[in-house]
Amino acid sequence: MTRAYEMHELIGRGGMAEVYRANLLGPSGFSKVVALKKIHPFYANDRHFQELFLNEARLLAKLSHPNIVQVLQVGFDDDSPYLILEWIEGRTLKQILENTLLGKRLLPEPVIRSIMKGILSALVAAHEFEDPETGRTAPIIHRDLSPHNVMIDKNGMVKVLDFGVAKILGGKGDFTKSEAFKGKFPYMSPEMVLGEQVSERSDLFSLGIICFEMLTGSRLFRGNSDFECLELIKKGSIPEISSLRPSVSEALAGFTMKLLRKNPMERMPSAKVALKELAAIKRPKYASPAKMARLATINGFRQSYPLLG
Fold first, then answer.
1. Would residue 46 show up in a list of annotated catalytic residues for this protein?
2. What is the DSSP letter of 60?
3. DSSP class per residue in 210-245
4. Whole-model pTM?
5. Helix or strand or coil: residue 116?
């Protein structure tokens, strides 16, 4: 059987999947650069991981938003599924943060505000998703929001990636404990750590952690082990942002601390409300697209797709 793609070099490898640069092929010499995501060979024949993988495809195929990476095609090779995703030429937020810290700098607040706006716009689209097949609202919770899964492309556009552990909320909107306990430990919400009900507000807490780290250049929940990290999240002790960045905008710091409230009911009720509150902040202003685009380069080198976290 003729493949629909031509695979090139490995770009990144994570715990569950690998990403390659590839060309999507078509009739009359059609060829388009894409990202090819395949299950890690170790899990290629594992039905559970195949289902997780295909779950991401189903979710992303239904979501269409400029701040969310798009699935172009789904297929099988040797009974193992693959995804063909849009090619993003840029850098992950993780890479951007690491690079600024190497230069002993912090991200400018207008850039931080613009990144927050892009992530929240993606979350609004996911959390308010209406299933076209049923016409019903079916919120999609990301559950793995972290700097690894956010990119800035060469045009300055913020892209949210990797819905691999996301899930559509059902009628009651709850998860089993085993389902709730997924994602990267340092970016989990307290309710995820405790195995309690997960909601849209869980993604907002994860965003709060990202905002804190962008503003301060410091990891919020850093332990010597995963256990210590989870215990810190349970305690929910959050340092004042101004103690780490005295010049921080009071409005932006207050907005971030509101996302980080331990009790989900004390956080903002939705990504849409959070986006409106962010828009109401007068200063700092948003960064220009040109300034955002400069984040996509490291000393003139442009990373052409994220390394998986």
1. no
2. H
3. HHHHHHHSS-SS--SSHHHHHHHHHHT----HHHH-
4. 0.86
5. helix
Sign of the CA dihedral running 183, 185, 187, 190? positive
Out of 8-17, 29-38, 250-259, pick the least confident: 8-17
Q: How far apart are CA 189 and CA 146, in angstroms?
A: 12
- Position 223: which residue type? G
Alpha helix (H) residue ranges in the chain: 47-62, 93-102, 109-127, 177-180, 190-193, 200-216, 226-235, 241-244, 250-259, 271-280, 289-293
Report the amino acid identity of residue 55.
N
SS3 label, residue 261: coil
44 CB-contact burial (10 Å; exposed 0-12 / middle 13-18 / buried 19+): middle
* Nearest to 160, CA basis, from 55, 296, 63: 63
How many Cβ atoms sit within 10 Å of the Cβ of residue 173? 14
Decide if pLDDT at 261 tops 70: yes
pLDDT at 277: 97
Decide: residue 36, CB within 10 A, 0-12 exposed, 13-18 middle, 19+ buried: buried
Q: Which of 46, 144, 162, 174 is catalytic?
A: 144
